[in-house]
Design a protein that fits this description.
Chain B: This is Acyl carrier protein. The structure holds 2 protein chains of 2 kinds. Chain A has 7 helices and no strands. By secondary structure, chain A is an all-alpha fold. Chain A is flat and about 55 Å long. By secondary structure, chain B is an all-alpha fold. Classes of the chains: A mainly alpha, B mainly alpha. At the A-B interface, helix 2 and helix 4 of A face helix 5 of B.
Chain lengths: ~130, ~130
């Protein structure tokens, strides 16, 4: 698996059209989905997450950049995705990296509680999350 | 007289034999399919029934988190009827691949846009299981 991904990671020429960049994104998504069973085995994720949840998580990360229309930028994002996937499949990461990034998401353990910081203001809560609002 | 009668009766009486029903090959004891015959070839022989394919495809589509399970029918189009986008479409096709242990090539995967097309493709695929 790792060797097959390494062949893909060779830098391709830029996409000429938006359509080509789009199809490269879908190819990357398919490749990532097909390597998910391996990832589940490598990081022993069977008791924390399912393949379909991870698939949705990957799709959500791709969807975050849905408004990008520059083919060069899409190529760059896809390249970063392939790089990340290669690292994960090569076991260059540890279990908590994968769980933290793809199972829990950026909010981590804080999101499901809603109990903490009850006294603090709305501004402060948003400030802890992000300063883009 | 009695021995002759006994012999004559024994020659004519036929009881159905039950030995062949009771006999099981020793492999049946550990074979997980419990003695049923199973083709070792992965294609040919056993093939999924159309109803089973349809049920499992609909179950996969209904379990997709972004759509309303009550709207899913055999004829529903992923993007027109169920309100999904192209990325969701690919995600659904990947879920179907996982469910039926297939690898659908890109050309065919692009064409699977509705439940009926998915059922048709998977039913006609020799390796679906």
């Amino acid at each position: 698996m790792a060797s097959s991904l390494r062949g893909v990671a060779r830098v391709q020429p830029n996409s000429k059209t938006l359509e080509e960049a789009r199809s490269r994104t879908f190819d990357f998504f398919k490749k990532a989905c097909r390597s998910l069973p391996t990832v589940m085995d490598i990081y022993n994720l069977h008791d924390v997450v399912t393949v379909s949840q991870l698939r949705s998580s990957i799709a959500a990360q791709i969807r975050k950049n849905i408004n990008v229309t520059n083919p060069k930028v899409i190529d760059m994002l896809v390249f970063k995705g392939i790089e990340e996937l290669t690292n994960i499949v090569d076991h260059a990461k540890q279990r908590h990296h994968v769980i933290g990034q793809y199972v829990l998401g950026p909010e981590g353990l804080d999101k499901d509680l809603g109990m903490q910081d009850q006294g603090s203001s709305h501004f402060l809560k948003r400030f802890y999350e992000t300063n883009y609002f | 007289m009695t021995p002759a009668l006994r012999l004559a009766i024994l020659r004519h009486i036929r009881l159905p034999s039950r030995a062949s029903e009771l006999y099981q090959p020793i492999s049946a004891l550990w074979f997980p399919l419990n003695g049923r015959r199973r083709d070792l070839s992965s294609h040919g022989g056993y093939h999924l029934a159309r109803e089973e394919v349809a049920d499992r495809v609909l179950a996969v589509v209904k379990s997709f988190p972004k759509l309303d399970p009550s709207k899913v029918t055999t004829d529903s189009h992923f993007q027109k009827d169920l309100g999904l986008d192209s990325l969701d479409n690919v995600e659904l096709v990947m879920a179907l691949e996982e469910e039926f242990k297939l690898e659908i090539p890109d050309m065919e995967a692009d064409k699977i846009e509705s439940c009926s097309l998915a059922i048709e493709y998977i039913f006609n695929h020799p390796m679906s299981g």
